[in-house]
Specification:
Elements (H helix, E strand, L loop, with lengths): L12 E6 L2 E6 L11 H15 L6 E5 L5 E3 L13 H20 L4 E5 L2 E3 L1 H8 L2 E5 L5 E3 L13 H9 L1 H10 L2 E3 H7 L4 E3 L4 H11 L13 H4 L11 H7 L2 H19 L5 H12 L4 H16 L2 H16 L6 H17 L4 E4 L3 H12 L4 E4 L3 H20 L5 H9 L1 E4 L10 E4 L5 H14 L6 E4 L6 H5 L8 E6 L8 E6 L5 H13 L3 E6 L6 H17 L4 H11 L5 H8 L1 H14 L9 H7 L12 E4 L2 E5 L18 H21 L6 H12 L8 H8 L1 H15 L15
Parallel strand pairs: 2-3, 3-5, 4-6, 5-7, 6-8, 7-10, 11-12, 11-14, 12-13, 14-15, 15-16, 17-18
Antiparallel strand pairs: 1-2, 8-9, 16-17, 19-20
Helix pairs in contact: 1-2, 2-3, 2-12, 3-4, 4-5, 5-11, 10-11, 11-12, 13-27, 14-20, 15-16, 16-17, 21-24, 21-26, 22-26, 23-24, 26-29, 28-29
Length: 734
């Protein structure tokens, strides 16, 4: 055999030679990211077999010339074929077999990493004898499988702890977080970090200078011990070492980790426990036995409904990143709005420096976009600026950024009370009081002081129809909704709302700006409450109705938390502000008077100046700003008083969630949302619908539409018209 036999074997895997070193370049031109398909893995297996048969071979380097991407894991479509436990187990074992060839090679194998190295990409790198990476900012390493309801099935639960230790490995595997090159070097995950243009040269050099590898040098033992240099001995954490290398110590790690898993997942997600089991039991066995255990547990997980739901969400997120508007509109939006903002030639106008406005300004600055933050008086602006600074101060305190970065971020936020400061902006986002007259007044003023007559006016209203806001505009085609969620830096969703008159240019600019802010985005049609606020209002109203009927505050919240919601609806109302929530529900009552039932008792509760957390008086009591116990004095406003009656937890959760799902389906029937995917994405990332259920429509599909329709019919007969099944549930396609 000659070297020429493995030149450019496939379109995605290109093999070349340099000084008897075989360089395998992973570069899939057909996709934005490199990912392993069955075909690519088969090709890789063939290339490795051929290379290892070459007598003059002195090393193998696996790398990628694809910009910013080493390998992003396994192609998500593979999971569609894994419909049984056995299929999942066999797929994992097949991955192990290919990657094991890197580990078993008698010549040095080197992973030269530049860009994202995730999932199967990192597992391949872990099987190599050496790992080096570039210092480029795009280089990120991680095992995110837990976010798909899975454990790393390509050797990650076995090789990672053998390289960096059990505790650090558990941290990476159970969080799915990504780390940069600097952190990877510190952990011992890579042995060297070099500039991008030196990466390949260094990898080849390692192959040429490394000593031949024999059985004891291969990765069959606790690599993080065996690979230590003499100079590292003094830095060993002896206590940690003792903990991880004996059965009692591993039992302590397992117990502590299991406690944390229970706290974080509340028993809803099986993957973290399986990943913990795989790692702890696996590292006590020979590597091959550990890999077999990993394959079995991977097979167990791949068929769980939780994994199917999380994979569904992953696909939704991926699809939602694509700008849906016409290419001409996208181009115009980029040229007029987005490109000047990215270049720093102009700034976003942020009107309103309150909780929402300062939060939006914070995220803009964090993403290197300048922002002029305006409010009516200096005190309001200063409060907003303090809120922005507290965010960056906290990041600096946690050593995620340096003081210079904090100061630079603050420099991107220009506080002002002068409208003239907004004159050059191509887009204004307003987050002023939820009053149509206030918004109209602001819009008219903006039209007088903004020089660009085609500036975009984006309203952050959560309930007022955008068409009513746009009614006062000279150019209603430039008015669009950008509904952010509080707290803006943490909440991942933005709801873009378009009217019949909104231009695609304006909508595209809002979409691209939200994307630059790192948000998941849904695009919806205009209407009272749009999508997210509307369906949430029905859920909260139902919870209040149940409260009036005699259920206790804690019973209602507990029922919904047991269903999987992050907080109960009564707690959420306190968090949002009872006055704000009541205002929104009242606005929506005008549009949905036939079915949105609001208890009259809410008026007397508000009249008592109960606003929730913000003034320390709500459905709960507060101690030092933290939620304490339910405030039983609220019950005096309700017809059953303190005589709270027992109500079945499942019945409470069903009433709240079925009215929620039903209103979501009505939004689809009315064209407010364009698809069930949009509905699922919005409910999960905007309202906290349980991810392990995949969204209201995915959950309904698992239940069966016929069952959903029948349950709603039964509830309608018992509780009222709001439960009358939406037309969507009776569609034959489901």
């Amino acid at each position: 055999m000659t070297n020429k036999n493995i030149q450019s074997v496939t379109k995605t895997l290109r093999a070349s030679w340099q000084d008897n070193v075989c360089i395998i370049d992973f570069h899939d031109e057909s996709k934005s990211m490199n990912a392993f398909s069955r075909e690519i893995l088969a090709d890789l297996d063939a290339i490795l077999s051929q290379a290892l048969n070459e007598q003059s071979l002195s090393g193998i380097v696996f790398t990628s010339s694809k910009p910013a991407c080493f390998a992003a894991g396994v192609d998500i479509s593979i999971f569609d074929t894994l419909t049984t436990q056995q299929a999942g187990e066999e797929a994992s074992a097949a991955l192990h077999a290919v990657f094991q060839k890197f580990a078993d090679a008698t010549v040095p194998t080197v992973a030269a990493i530049n860009g994202v190295c995730l999932g199967g990409g990192l597992e391949l790198a872990l099987a190599c004898h050496y790992r080096i990476c570039s210092s480029h900012s795009s280089t990120q390493l991680g095992l995110p499988e837990i976010q798909l309801g899975l454990l790393p099935g390509g050797g990650g639960t076995q090789r990672l702890p053998r390289v960096i230790g059990a505790a650090p490995a558990l941290d990476l595997i159970l969080t799915g977080k990504k780390i940069d090159a600097k952190k990877a070097l510190k952990l011992g995950l890579v042995s060297e970090v070099v500039p991008e243009n030196q990466l390949l040269r260094k990898a080849v050099e390692i192959c040429k200078t490394a000593k031949p590898l024999t059985g004891s040098k291969k990765q069959t033992t606790l690599g993080f011990l065996g690979q230590m240099k003499a100079a590292d001995v003094g830095s060993i954490d002896v206590q940690k070492l003792a903990l991880e290398t004996n059965p009692l110590g591993r039992a302590i790690i397992e117990r502590k980790t299991l406690e944390q898993i229970e706290k974080n997942t509340k028993g809803f997600y099986p993957a973290p426990k399986k990943a913990l089991e795989s790692l702890i039991k696996g590292i006590a066995k020979p590597l091959q036995d550990g890999l077999r255990l990993e394959s079995k547990l991977f097979g167990d997980l791949v068929v769980t409904p939780e994994s199917r739901a999380l994979i569904h969400i992953f696909r939704l997120i991926t699809a939602a990143k694509k700008n849906p508007f016409h290419s001409d509109a996208q181009r115009a939006a980029r040229e007029d709005v987005i490109d000047p903002l990215i270049a720093g030639d102009t700034a976003v106008g942020m009107v309103g420096a309150g909780l929402m406005g300062s939060g939006i300004a914070t995220v803009l600055s964090d993403k290197n976009i300048r922002c002029v933050m305006m409010d009516r008086d200096g005190a309001s602006v200063q409060r907003g600026l303090k809120s922005v600074q507290s965010y960056f101060d906290e990041r600096m305190k946690k050593r995620r950024i340096k003081r210079f970065d904090r100061d630079a971020a603050m420099g991107r936020v220009l506080p002002t009370t002068s409208p003239d400061s907004l004159s050059g902006t191509p887009i204004i986002i307003e987050a002023v009081f939820e009053d149509l007259a206030v918004k109209h007044d602001l819009l008219k003023k903006c039209e007088t002081f903004v020089k660009n007559e085609n500036f975009i006016f984006a309203s952050n209203t959560s309930s007022l129809p955008i068409s009513r806001v746009a009614a006062a505009a000279r150019k209603p085609e430039n008015v669009v909704g950008m509904h952010f969620f509080s707290p803006v830096p943490k909440m991942p969703l933005v709801e873009i709302i378009t009217t019949d008159k909104t231009s695609e240019r304006a909508a595209s600019a809002a979409f691209d700006l939200a994307a630059k802010m790192g948000k998941n985005i849904i695009v919806v049609k205009d209407g009272p409450g749009f999508y997210t606020t509307r369906i949430l209002a029905f859920l909260i109203a139902e919870a209040l109705n149940i409260l009036v009927e005699g259920a206790s505050i804690e019973a209602i919240d507990t029922a919904l938390e047991r269903f999987g919601m992050p907080v109960g609806p009564i707690t959420l109302l306190d968090e949002v502000g009872i006055d704000v929530g009541a205002h929104i529900i009242t606005v929506l009552k005008e549009a949905f008077a036939d079915r949105l039932q609001i208890p009259a008792e809410l008026d007397s509760i508000i009249a008592e100046d109960r606003k929730g957390r913000k003034n320390g008086r709500g459905f709960y009591t507060y101690a030092d700003g933290k939620k304490d116990k339910p405030d039983v004095s609220v019950y005096k406003h309700l017809k059953h008083g303190d005589d709270r009656k027992h109500m079945d937890m499942k019945e409470i959760a069903d009433r709240c969630m079925y009215v929620f799902m039903n209103e979501a389906a009505r939004c689809l029937d009315e064209g407010i949302i364009s698809s069930t995917d949009v509905g699922d994405l919005g409910a999960i990332f905007g309202l906290g619908f349980p991810p392990f259920l995949g969204g209201p429509f995915h959950h309904a599909q698992q239940l069966g539409y016929a069952r959903v329709s029948q349950t709603l019919s039964d509830m309608a007969g018992k509780y009222g018209k709001r439960f009358a099944p939406a037309a969507h549930w009776t569609k034959s396609s489901h």
